[in-house]
Amino acid sequence: MRANALLLFVAFFGFTTNASAQNIIIDPNPTPTQLVQNTLIGPGLVTSNITFSGNLQQIGFFDENGSNLGLDSGVVMSSGYVANITPPNNPSTTIGGPGDADLLATAQSVTSNPSSGSITSTNDAAVLEFDFVPTGDVVVFNFVFGSEEYLTYVNTSFNDVFGFYITGPNPNGPDYNGDNLAIVPNTNEPITISTIHPGLNGQYYIDNPSNSGISYNGYTIPIEIRFDVICDSTYHFKFAVADCQDGILDTGVFLDGGSFQAIPVDLTLETNIGEYGDSVIVEGCGVEADFIFSRPSCQSSDSLWVNVDITGTATNGLDYLTLPDSVLFLPDSTEISIPFTAIQDGVFEGYESVILTVTNVLSSGDTIVTIGTVWLLDAPNVQAWGHDTTIVCRQDSVDIYASVLDGIPPYSFSWDTGSTDSVTWVPGTPNGSFDYYVTVTDACGFTDTDTLTLIVDQTLVIDTLIAYPSDACNPTGAVSAFVSGITDVLGQPFYHWSDSIVPNGQPYEVDATVMQNIPSGWYYFTVTDDVCSALDSVFVEPLDPPVADFSASPTSGCAPLEVTFTNSSQNTTDYVWYMNNEAMDTLYINTPGTTIYNESAVVMMVATRASCSDTAYATINVDPCPFPTVYAPNVFTPNNDSYNDSFYLTVENAAEVELIITNRWGNIVFQHTATNPTWDGKSKTPSGADCAEGVYFYRYKVTGVVGDILEGHGFVHLVRD
Length: 721
Fold this sequence. Notes:
Elements: E1 3-6, E2 25-27, H1 32-40, E3 45-53, E4 59-63, E5 73-78, H2 101-108, E6 122-134, E7 138-147, E8 161-168, E9 176-180, E10 205-207, E11 218-220, E12 223-228, E13 235-244, E14 251-256, E15 261-263, E16 266-271, E17 280-282, E18 289-294, E19 304-311, E20 326-329, E21 335-340, E22 351-361, E23 367-377, E24 383-386, E25 389-391, E26 397-405, E27 412-415, E28 423-427, E29 432-441, E30 447-456, E31 461-468, E32 470-471, E33 477-484, E34 494-498, E35 509-510, E36 514-518, E37 521-528, E38 533-540, E39 542-543, E40 550-553, E41 556-558, E42 561-567, E43 574-578, E44 586-587, E45 594-597, E46 601-609, E47 612-623, E48 629-631, E49 635-636, E50 647-648, E51 650-652, E52 654-662, E53 668-674, E54 678-679, E55 694-704, E56 709-718
Parallel strand pairs: 17-23, 25-30, 32-39, 41-47, 49-56
Antiparallel strand pairs: 1-16, 2-4, 3-6, 4-5, 5-14, 6-13, 7-11, 7-12, 7-14, 7-15, 8-9, 8-13, 10-11, 16-18, 18-21, 19-20, 19-22, 22-23, 24-26, 26-28, 27-29, 29-30, 31-33, 33-36, 34-35, 34-37, 37-38, 40-42, 42-45, 43-44, 43-46, 46-47, 48-51, 50-54, 52-53, 52-55, 55-56
């Protein structure tokens, strides 16, 4: 981002009260028109329609007269009589005049005042208004604000108020419409006793409790108002000041004489970096900067020579590249850019000034002098500082950090660990010395590297943890710790065993090096001495844990399914069998033996010994047994060719088959009962002769696996060829 630094400014420092200050001189006699035309307005403006609302004793001419006001002379306006601003008069005048709606809205808008919502009226308003036409693009004036309300009534409803209200075209849009320009610098807050005081924006405040030189209890340093305009356009301006909620304890504003002026040629500095302030250039930083001379478009029809007087403690052409002593605006040209480059001479000389003075002579003969100051700085090169760190307790990770001396912010960091933060962490380490490196780079690109040494020096050590196994079903285990390197100054070290990393009041917890009668599991030991702590853990193994196990055979089939169970559990004494997941019936026996299942089930067996147990499962899948089926061929050829040499039924889901075959005369030639009887084409006679070719009849009776009966008959052709 490019920063634009205005070189026209009023210094905001160096003003103090002085017990020997002379009293300010106030003259209430000049008319408002005289005060505007002869005192307030400077070059570059034409005014008209000057009006004043209020008592004429509320406006006048002032002369600083050594009172430390910070402004030589000008126009003063007050919510009381201006003559009372001169000591030893008391600036607390109740005039009984009306208030002002704009000032009331301004007072109510002060967000820093918690009582702004309680302000319901303004009184004794002094309002100066006029129109003006500028011959430049920028208008400036200086002022000081003071009040007898300081400091007693800060942040109360007696928050006396003033404002500078502008109406007219705004070159930056939207147009001005009664906008208040009396704003605390670099904020959006109106200037009141509640927005400038020692507790808020105190750099702009001067305390004056003894009313030295000026009768107000406090007042601001000189502050500049600057706003953009369109040259040759008409603007309306309104200066106003009033009391809030009452008519006493006056407030006033001092307007610097001749400072209300338009600037025909403006001068700014445009730079890439402003870490030391927008008007500071660091030698050797590589910063690009330009002096920008600009003039209003309404004056651009002619050429214009502008003389530039270059002074200051820095030397033109030696500390910076030579700047010209004049610039030429050609017709229709409104801006000229002059590059500015500081030269790195390697000599640290602190701040050196470059002062540019531009003198503008108006057609009326008036002269406007614009002065801007640029500062050159030989900034010391950046220095990285890695902070050595010593820890007496080993940790999982350790924060290490680096600082920066000198150089130009912002800074970037690069550690040899890969981190890019000023503070980083490194993994915990054993005792010893470890080096880390950090490189710092500033905004100018200057770099420096430093070494950080991390020293880990922990003497407290847990040498050994011993775990004694525990019976799996009874807490018979134990743990023991041995420690060395204790730093014991104030008393005995603290020992703690627990079944949790964080002590939690569980049954297995003791403040000692030994803990007994514990079950299997992880146990954590902590020792703490006067400077450090150490933590370690150990696992207590279980002895002979119960193992539940059994087998089932078969595990699937059709109903009714007969299943045999075999118990193969180990280290157990008692068993509970859940034979059916629906009925959840139980058998308190070593093994249930054989069980008939007509439907699927999940069998669970819980094996126990003393206080511990284990569980095993088996799933029995039972399907309904189907009805038997039969398929019979209608021809067979018992000719010993090993193809279709016998007649048999193809059956499924059969436990037994009875097959009877007869010839055409009803004589039985074959009868047999088996799981799958087969006829080879021979007679049942003792001779076993081959049966003749022809048609034979058969009938069958099939018994299914669950006793179902299927009967049928048919015929088959016996062919021998």
